[in-house]
Design goal:
homodimer, alpha+beta, Phosphorylase Kinase, domain 1, five-stranded antiparallel sheet
């Protein structure tokens, strides 16, 4: 959550001459996204986000991410539109980094989503899944079962330093989730990280989805599971089934869920909880002194995981 | 250079109802200023900066800072204007911090100032000194000679760990500068921190001065000395006398300098170099693990200090 790569104004003005987006009026480094350097530009033509892609984003994935945003925006989804330069290219380099200029999206993310926000995000997620259907590029989900195993292998020995008993519990979880992980559910392009800070609203109205830098091809229902975890738990740890119902009902009105997808939800939500538990655990155990980002509590996701593990079926999510 | 205090959108919207500045469209945490949390707000009426004052700014100084900006903006100086709420107050509280909404200033700061930028800043500084003349509040410069002594006392023992011989050199400098520090030069409101990141331009045109949170009452010529250090040295350490001349000539066209002020410049510039050397030394020796700001090199200012010490008169600054 910070600017990593400084860009001086002369360099920036030279860079912007490659675009037809007017003259630079103002530039502010913004605290948006944890992976990249982001600047909010005001030009005589409007607002733009300038993103410099830092190490954690692989350059080989950028055509997928930028192409996906273009594809989705072209199909009417409220998401940032990469701006092409005069040469027709959206991806170029600045200050030694891959860089892109992206249209500014109005709206404010909500820290404490209300029921109406959960419904709006359910609908937008289904629209994303439908709009992504014909996108031609593919990207494997590096953070699915195989990725979790690799990540866990690098944390396992020290897991109990974070919470006593965590190692045994994660050994068991990972084994069981991997064994039961579904293979034959509908697949497509998923956002994979649709947390409240990646969704903008004005009032109750959803104005945009941002941060497609974990997007990939995977089970569509897994994306719903990520959202149930991110949107429907209360700060006290309780699952709010009214929010779950709002999210799922709105989703199903746009893209109906099969019986198999519904039945798989508890396992998928458990897997989604494990995924964020593991990346948070990794970040927790590998804090860089002087780092700009304070790691998030991995145990929040252990509690979510346990909730899903205890369910006998998807009804607990508020299904009607 | 970071957002320290998070503000959630519901809290922010309640806060903004105290102002007549329209509906919130967008909010971004921005990396501006090292002392405070800053957010760039877009509302249906325009752009604003929301500042939450963190610990390093004393709440008792805020009426001086905000009042000064109002005073200067009212006299036509290009500086941020604090926005008064419906109750007539500019200063209130948000998220447990003193907070203010301030008008957005267009423009971009230049990392490598050119001669024309130095002239523009010289002129603006003189305008600031004239416009500040009738401001009624007063604030002692906490970072003048007495403040340097205090700061140095807390660093002295470890000075040689940064650079061998630094302690002896600073002992001597502080003694000599304190002994010779002028007392009878014209005083008034000074900015005291007018570095390139605190000045906005559009092209060659200066559009605003920002960050008045070190402003205080002190020798006006000391403020010029701060600017000579901040604007007229090249990245290789050399003093660019053409830039010095541009800055001083432009200043003198708006506010003439007395013979005594000119004669004092080398000593004032030496003191100004010592001031930034000492705060940087302190920050260098007191790095907080996990801090959001990387400290700046104190030795840059040792080299500047030595340059001024070696001068026989102010002519070396490019005076005509």
């Amino acid at each position: 959550m910070a600017v990593y790569t400084p860009v001086d104004e002369a360099q920036l003005e030279r860079f912007l001459r490659q675009y037809a987006i007017g003259e630079l009026v103002s530039v502010k480094g913004i605290a948006e996204g944890v992976e990249n350097s982001n600047y909010l530009l005001q030009t005589t033509k409007g607002g733009y986000i300038l993103t410099l892609y830092e190490k954690r984003v692989h350059a080989r994935d950028l055509p997928f991410f930028l192409g996906l945003m273009q594809h989705l925006a072209g199909r009417g989804l409220a998401c940032p539109l990469p701006v092409k330069g005069r040469d027709g290219q959206a991806l170029r380099r600045l200050a030694g980094r891959p860089a892109a200029v992206i249209g500014f999206l109005a709206g404010v993310s909500v820290m404490r989503p209300r029921i109406s926000h959960c419904a709006a995000v359910g609908q937008a997620l289904a629209q994303l899944h439908l709009a992504g259907a014909e996108f031609s590029l593919r990207r494997v989900n590096a953070l699915s079962v195989a990725g979790w195993k690799k990540l866990y292998a690098s944390c396992r020995r020290r897991a109990d330093t974070v919470w006593d008993g965590l190692q045994a519990e994660l050994d068991m979880e990972l084994r069981e989730i991997a064994r039961r992980w579904p293979k034959d559910l509908p697949q497509g392009v998923i956002h994979a990280d649709l947390f409240p800070d990646n969704v903008f609203f004005r009032g109750e109205q959803l104005t945009g989805l941002i941060d497609f830098y974990f997007a990939c091809n995977d089970l569509l229902a897994y994306d719903i599971a990520v959202c149930l975890n991110a949107w429907c738990f209360e700060p006290d740890g309780g699952f709010n089934a009214t929010k779950g119902r709002a999210l799922l009902s709105a989703y199903r009105k746009t893209r109906p869920l099969s019986v198999a997808e519904l039945a798989a939800l508890p396992l998928l939500a458990r897997g989604a909880a494990l995924r964020f538990l593991l990346t948070r655990l990794y970040d927790w155990l590998n804090q860089v002194p002087g780092a700009l980002v304070r790691p998030k509590d991995p145990l929040e996701y252990l509690h979510k995981l346990r909730f899903h593990r205890g369910l006998s079926g998807p009804e607990a999510y508020g299904l009607t």
